[in-house]
Amino acid sequence: MTPDQVLDHVLRAAAEIFGHEAARTDNFFALGGDSVDAVELANALERRLGTLIDVALIMRTPDLGGLADAIGVAATAA
To answer: What's this model's pTM, rounded to 2 decimal places?
Structure first.
């Protein structure tokens, strides 16, 4: 999966959770995200990407573009 595809999945999953479009530069917490939303996002991304997503990764990397990059790196390393 390309980095752009991972980013697209992250942005679409975030949009589903928050009910509006999300951008690469958006911060998960500034969008209103909390720990429950982080679990929902992790679960949505696991379904979309077919790989485990650690909720802690979302908490450590709240920038959606940075999160997509981190997921891409983690998937490549696995």
So the answer is: 0.93
